[in-house]
Amino acid sequence: GMKSVFFPIITLLISILFANHFAGLYGVAISALGMLSFVATAVSTDSYGPIADNAGGISEMCELDPEVRHITDRLDAVGNTTAAIGKGFAIGSAVLAALSLFASYMYSQISPKDIGKPVETILLLNMIDARTIAGALLGAALPYYFSGMLIKSVTKAAMRMVEEIRRQFREIPGLMEGKATPDYTKCITITSENALRQMKAPAFIALLTPLVTGFLLGPKFVGGVLIGTTLSGAMLAILTANAGGAWDNAKKFLEQGNIEGYGKGSEPHKALVIGDTVGDPLKDTVGPSLDILIKIMAVVSVIAVSIFKEIHLF
Question: Which of 69, 76, 201, 287 has CA atoms 20 to 30 A from the CA of 50?
Fold first, then answer.
C-alpha cells in the first residue's frame, strides 16, 4: 500500500510539469478536464467490483453450488483491482482540479497593478511565511483526522447492525432454525440512516475549515491549508484505496485454496478476515471521500476568499 503511492504521484507530477510547460496553469486545468472526461469509464470500472460482490452474496444466500461462489470471488478480486484503478483516476483528477482552483484562489488576491500578468510570475504565497507553514501543517493533518472520523462512523453503523441482527435472533421465533424470515427492511433502514447521520460531522469539517481559518487568520493561512490538504490527502487516498483492495484480495486468495495447508477457519484465514474488515472501509469509504474533501475545500476557499481577504481577525 505504501509503496504503491510513489509511482502514481510521479506520473501525476510529470503530467503537471508537462502541462504547465506547454500551456501554464491553463494547461493544468485542461489536463484536469481531460481526466474528468474519462469519468464514465472510471465509474464503470469502479462499479464492476460491487456487482460481482453482490452476485457472490446472492449465490451464497440462495445456497447455490460452491463453484458459483468460487467464480464470483474470482470476479470480485478482479473488481477490487479495477476499482483501485478507477479510484486512482479520481484522485488524479481531484489533484489537478484542486491545483487549478488554487491558482484561481491565489489570483483573486493580486493587486490591481498586477492584473493581466501570468499568475505564476507573481509572488502570491511565501512558503517560509509562518502563516503559510502553519496552514500547511493543519491541512496535512486534516485528511488523517477526517479518515479517522469516517472509519469510526463505519464502525458505529456496523455495531448497530450487529445489535439488530442479535435482536432478531432473540425475538423472532424460528429464525435460528431457518424456519422464519428475517426483517431485512430494518437492517437496510439502519445502514441508510446511520450513513446519513454520520455524514454530518465530516461534511461540516470540509465546509467550515476554510471559512473559520480564513476569518481568523486570513488568506495566507488558508492557502497553506489547501496545499497541505491536497498533498496529504492525495497520498493517503492512494494508500487507502490500494491497501484496502490488497487486504480484500488476500483473503480471497487464501479461500480459493492457493495456500497449501490453510483454508477457511485456519489462523491465517482469521487474520485475513480481520484485515479485510479493516480494508473495506479504507478502500470504499476513506479513499473516495478524500477526493471530495480536497475538491470541496478548494471550491469553498475560492468562493469565500474575497470576503476573508478583507475581513479577518489576525
Answer: 201
Other Cβ atoms less than 10 A from the Cβ of 34: the count is: 13
Comparing CA positions, the residue from 16, 94, 125 lying closest to residue 288 is 94
Number of domains in the chain: 1
Side-chain-facing half-sphere of 42: CA atoms under 13 Å: 17
Whole-model pTM?
0.88
On whether the CB atoms of residues 49 and 82 are closer than 8 A, the answer is: yes
Residue appearing with cell numbers 478583507:
310
**Distance between CA atoms of 281 and 252, rounded to whole angstroms?**
17
Choose the weakest-confidence range: 151-165, 260-274, 284-298: 260-274
| 162's grid cell | 450487529
Residue 252: Cβ within 10 Å count = 18
Report the alpha-carbon distance of residue 193 to residue 217 in Å, rounded. 37
Residue 314 forms part of a structural domain: no
**94: domain range?**
3-308
Q: Mean of the per-residue pLDDT values for the chain?
A: 87
